[in-house]
Amino acid sequence: MNAITEKISLSTDVDMANFWMPFTGNKQFKAAPRILKSAKGMYFTTADDQKVLDASAGLWCVNAGHCRDEITEAVHKQMMELDYAPPFQMGHPLAFEAAKKIAEVMPAGLDRIFFANSGSEAVDTALKMALAYHRARGEGQRTRLIGRERGYSGVGFGGISVGGILANRKAYSGALIPGVDHISHTHNLAEMAYSKGQPAWGAHLADDLERLCALHDPSTIAAVIVEPVAGSTGVLVPPQGYLQRLREICTKHGILLIFDEVITGFGRLGKATASELFGVTPDLLTMAKAMNNAAIPMSGVAASRHVHDAIVNGSAGGAIEFFHGYTYSSHPTAAAACLATQEIYRKEGLFARAAGLAPKFEKEIHALRGEPFVKDIRNLGLMGAVELQSRDGAPGARAYDVFLKCMEKGVLARFTGDIMAFSPPLIVSEGQIEEIFATVKKALHEVA
Ligand code: PMP
Questions:
Q1: Which of 47, 199, 314, 441 meets the CB 3.0–4.6 Å disulfide criterion with 136?
Q2: What gap in Å lies between CA 297 and CA 335, rounded to an integer?
Q3: Among 121, 263, 266, 414, which residue has the most ligand 1 atoms within 8 Å of its CB, making it the best to mutate?
Q4: Would residue 393 be called left, alpha or beta, if left means φ above 0 and alpha means ψ between -120 and 50 degrees?
């Protein structure tokens, strides 16, 4: 299926009166609606039957490709058998099986899996676990949480508080959770422009955590949360040695380290987790998206044994030890989709496949250097970004134009501000990788 449709009609006849779209310029969307009606493998089909190559795996989540029969069948079977089971004080077999399968691919020791339904919930769960852990150990004064500038940790109050995106926080700034601070982000254009993979410069940026330890007293800090590779703010790849250094500082001060692997988990970087790729083990790891190929909302937190045991053993026998959970935690259909997805990853070796394709992806994305507006290019695994020069006085407008041009030419990419981001499903072919970046090149020239 190589055919790229030349022209995509942006029109549709859906009634737009009622649906308030999330993270969308609703007025802008109404002027140029883009409706997707079906998908298979690497392609979406739009409302007017145009095929669009999915260069972003939906929202970094459909790693096994769209509408996989194995997942559809597993979900259907589960719906017929057990549509719902209360997850509090009760269980169903698939929840335990899914936790086991997930634990098998998590870093050693992170084998206690708590289920939620979105990345945002996973983050808030992990933050609460960190606080519960310290309190259970008699260190209830450790309540400070540290996030990172340009971090995205979802949209719950915990997530936007530790998150580092101004636009996500601004309207709610009076009600963010107290006692939160941020270390500096890891991007420095002067030192790392056009880095391939991990930049050599910048391990010392982790020392910014020592600044906050000196400021607040480390015995008041509960946890630090970072995305190993910041995704939504434009694929900011950690400098070599940075995450190791962050781990050392956390360990030294008794601070828990949380990796938000909502994007990086399940093969995006060529391994099950970024933790495995970088050889750095956090205390808590959040996951969502590709854990069940985004078929049914599902997320989770993998907790290390010491965090889990401290919380569970910290309460009297029979009592609920962690006052937290969701009506849909470990939902039977989500668990069924999760098991089917994990089996696809295993059987088809998709994580290793992504690792094998990474050099081709790197070559093709970096071939855009020197094209109109291109200011920086970054990549790791099957994750990449092309940062564009902003149009004067209109941040984001350039990338939006390029995004629309790509869409018109049959390629769906993402954009955030003036950064184009790419993260195709792990089933992408070498030819499709070429097609994606050839299309972006054409789009840049046409916009220019
Ligand atoms: N953490 C990270 C790193 C993410 O990228 C995202 C979503 N892109 C989230 C959390 C939030 O996930 P959700 O949208 O499922 O709440």
A1: 314
A2: 10
A3: 263
A4: left
Nearest ligand 1 atom, CA 231: 5
Residues with Cβ within 8 Å of 146's Cβ and at least 6 positions away in sequence, in order, are 162, 180, 181, 182, 183, 209, 212, 221, 223, 224, 225, 255
What number does the ligand 1 atom closest to the CA of 151 have?
Answer: 3
* Res. 92: pLDDT tops 80: yes
**Ligand 1 centre and the CA of 126: distance in Å?**
13
Mean pLDDT of the chain: 95
Cα separation of 315 and 184, whole Å?
37
The residue contributing the CA closest to ligand 1 atom 1 is 153
Cα dist. 323→77, 252, 326 in Å? 32, 29, 10
Contact residues of ligand 1, CB 6 A cut-off: 118-120, 123, 152-154, 227, 231-232, 260, 262-263, 288
Nearest CA to ligand 1 atom 12: 119
Among residues 419, 371, 346, 398, which one has the least CA distance to residue 189?
419
pLDDT band at 3 (very low <50, low <70, confident <90, very high): very low
Structure confidence by residue, pLDDT tens digits, 398-445: 999 999 999 999 999 999 999 999 999 999 999 999 999 999 999 999
**Ligand 1 atom at minimum distance from 60 CA:** 8
For the domain spanning 70-348, the CATH number is: 3.40.640.10
26-67+349-447, what's its fold? Aspartate Aminotransferase, domain 1 (3.90.1150)
Which of 47-56, 60-69, 267-276, 316-325 has the weakest average pLDDT?
316-325
Q: What is the ipTM of this complex?
A: 0.99
385 closest CA partner among 351, 358, 354, 362: 362
Report how far residue 59's alpha carbon sits from residue 232's, in angstroms, rounded to the nearest whole number.
Answer: 10
Longest dimension (CA), the chain: 68
Chain CA centroid to CA 425, Å: 14
Which residue type does 225 have? I
> Can you give the residue ranges of every domain in the chain?
26-67+349-447, 70-348
In testing the pocket of ligand 1, which one of 152, 157, 235, 415 has its CB within 8 Å of the most ligand atoms? 152
